[in-house]
Amino acid sequence: MLELVSLAGMLELVSLAGMLELVSFAGMLELVSFAGMLELVSLAGMLELVSLAGMLELVSLAGMLELVSLAGMLELVSFAGMLELVSLAGMLELVSLAGMLELVSLAGMLELVSFAGMLELVSLAGMLELVSLAGMLELVSLAGMLEFVSLAGMLEFVSLAGMLELVSFAGMLELVSFAGMLELVSLAGMLELVSLAGMLELVSLAGMLELVSFAGMLELVSFAGMLELVSFAGMLELVSFAGMLELVSLAGMLELVSLAGMLELVPLAGMLELVSFAGMLELVSLAGMLELVSFAGMLELVSLAGMLELVSLAGMLELVSLVELFVVEFVSFLETVSFLRKVNATTEPIPNRAKQNRVTYKLLRSFLLNAGSIILVGTFVVHIYKTIF
């Protein structure tokens, strides 16, 4: 049952009914076998092998290399703590090289790669992926739906199935897009663009330039509050340059132009026009029918379809109706001539024919002088009018 063999204390063999066997060579080599189930091999403590019915195996070379296998299910390999591999039936795998490189795989579903904490990759069945390079670059992807990229907090990109996108470069440039509907671009708060499906757009350059467009209907442009333009479907337009120049147009019907309150022009479909230059010169025209011209209250001209005209120069000279006055003078002349003829017909003949001719001459001269005055004044007024305009 029990056998012991010893050769000068160098070699020892112990066998208990073939069940337990121990072999020792000067304490250097030891082999223990229990019915073939458990085996231990040790070479001066340098190499150790443990096997439990082929299920569990351990190999150690001076603590440098270790291998553990449980029926091929779990395997661990360690080389001086530098390289470690853990495998659970091919499901979970871990590889570590002195803590520098680590790989974790759970049946190909979850994978983690880390190189000295610098580069990390996490993948869950290709659904979620994370890449980090020393905290500098990060990428997160959820089945291509959500993506996030960060470069040391400088550049960030977020995408949700192409619906929502955000790009930020050190907080300087930001872009937000939701299915191409809403877009925002900001460059350090200097330039901002907002677009809602191409309907509403806002552009701001450090608060200096602003543009608002709603489906091309309403547009506003402002440059540091100096220049402003408002357009509503091309119907209403307003232009203001530092409050100096203003233009208002309602479908081309009404237009107002003001230059620092000095010059103003209002046409209503070409019917009504008003021109004012610092309150000095004013012109009002209603379809060419009524016209009023005033120059510092000195010269005024009113015309109603060319029929009635009034000219006043500082209240000194007034001319009413050039046409009418000419006609009145001419009629007066004809009436005078007719009256003289009647007098001649009812009275005795005038012996002195020369005296009659002198009377006729004086009447004709008076008419010509009046008509000439009218023509001269009218020409003067027209000349002033053309000179002004």
UniProtKB/TrEMBL annotation:
Does the UniProt entry include the keyword Calcium?
no
Per UniProt, the keywords (alphabetical) are: Membrane, Transmembrane, Transmembrane helix
Transmembrane residue ranges: 6-28, 40-64, 76-100, 112-137, 157-181, 193-218, 238-262, 274-298, 310-334, 363-385
Q: Which domain of life is it from?
A: Eukaryota
Among its keywords, does the record have Membrane? yes
PANTHER family documented for this protein? AGAP006868-PA, EXS-RELATED PROTEIN
Tell me the protein's name.
Answer: Uncharacterized protein
